[in-house]
Amino acid sequence: MSRITFTLSLLASAILLTTFSTKLSAQSLEQQAAMIHKKFLTIDTHNDTALHINNPDAEYRVTKGQVTFPMMKEGGLDAALFAIFITQRERDDASLLSATKYVTDNLSRFRKYVEEYKEVSIAYNSDDLLRNKSKGITSVVLAIENGYAVGKDLSNLEMFRDMGVRAITLCHNLNNDICDASMDKGPEHNGLSDFGVKVVQEMNRLGIIIDVSHASTETVFDVLKVSKKPVMASHSGVWSIKNHNRNLKDKEIKAIAAAGGLIQVATGRFFLSELPKDSVTVAHIADHIDYVKNLVGIEHVGIGTDFDGGGGVVGMENVSKMKNLTIELLKRGYTQRELELFWGGNFIKFLKVQNL
After folding, report:
1. For a tag on the chain, would you pick the N or C end, based on fewer CB atoms within 10 A?
2. Are 321 and 315 in contact (CB under 8 A)?
3. How many domains does the chain have?
């Protein structure tokens, strides 16, 4: 064998060994991720799937069909908050009454769908979530996105609670009668309205989680002053990484965490990066998670995908690919304990403080 042939043979062997090692490494990460998802409760704190299930033939501006119960099983996701989203309309009495009716109707229809689905159950508290996990049952937690549905009637909160709702996002992109939103043209209440203060107090009393995603900075700080319980941003990004009005500034993240709350990172590419859609990946989600973890600790961060509402990136286009996020976090050195907290441990602790 010539020296050149021998050298080429060694080079080929090195390439084969590197390829084999890479495959083994990828396989090992996949196995670790699968084990973590099997062992620990995993929850996504926001999707917009319920309306798509209720109204499959409606026209939508964002990708739909990102969440089904079989896909949740495939992706190793045990539970999710399924929000009934209500678009902001006029705020006269008739419009507000119509909004409340729209949400109650969709809640009833979605509840019926879930109750008729095998191996899926509505969870109302931390015990339900953990029990369902142990039995291999997928959990649905009911939520409402946009306090516009409350109208100007505090009694609607108790009605929603009795229908199974466990979380309400105080606003969407526009100011409502409760508070100012982060995406509206300007402030109306300079944070919470007087009615909004009563809403926060009543949600505390009833055991409904206060969700401050979409709220203005002033609203977030007003809520933290009034609420006797920790609050959650169910699907938000980090403003310091992507200067988007929907994202949370450092002072908001620190204040929410200091009060025992949660910052659940969203997956909408417009919250994550300036890059074009086909260039935004799971790594960009992990960048936001890293940032929150480093700023306030792993105990205050989780995931709120916003699937079926604009969420999804390359590598995590739908709920069947949730383990890819775990793989990315494992690559970054996240420990098993940190991933347990991130995926569900933090949320369970948060629920228990809420007496849920």
Report:
1. N
2. yes
3. 1
Q: Judge contact between 308 and 49, C-beta under 8 A.
A: yes
Both tokens assigned to 292 = 């929150």
DSSP run (H or E) holding 30:
helix 3-39
Within 8 A by CB and 6+ apart from 310, the residues are: 62, 63, 268, 270
Distances (CA, A) of 98 to 120, 153, 161, 246: 30, 13, 19, 27
Residue span of the structural domain in which 235 resides: 41-353
d(CA 157, CA 103) in angstroms, rounded, equals 12
Is there a domain that residue 29 lies in?
no
Inside any domain, residue 325: yes
pLDDT on residue 2: 57
What integer pLDDT is reported at residue 11 of this predicted model? 47
pLDDT at 23: 54
Residues 84, 89, 91, 97: what is their CA dihedral angle, to the nearest 10 degrees?
A: -50
Position 30 in a domain? no
CATH number at residue 335: 3.20.20.140
Q: Are 315 and 284 in contact, with CB atoms under 8 Å apart?
A: no
* Start-end of H helices in 40-118: 49-54, 69-75, 93-115
Give residue 271's pLDDT. Answer: 95
What is the reported pLDDT for 17?
38
- Strand, coil or helix: what is 134? helix
pLDDT at 246: 97
CA-CA distance, 76 to 68, in Å (whole number)?
12
Asked if residue 28 is part of any domain, the answer here is no
DSSP H helices, 217-281, are: 217-226, 250-258, 269-272
C-alpha to C-alpha distances, 237 to 2, 27, 45, 228, 233, nearest whole angstrom: 59, 30, 14, 25, 9
Q: What is the pLDDT of residue 27?
A: 85
The span from the CA of 115 to the CA of 100, in Å, is: 22
Contact indicator for 104, 163 with CB cutoff of 8 Å: yes
Work out the end-to-end distance of the chain between its first and last CA atoms, rounded to an integer number of angstroms.
74
Q: Which portions of the chain are predicted below pLDDT 50?
A: 6-8, 10-22, 24
| The pair of three-digit structure tokens given for residue 73, joined into one six-digit string | 């099983």
Rounded CA separation 282/303 (Å): 12
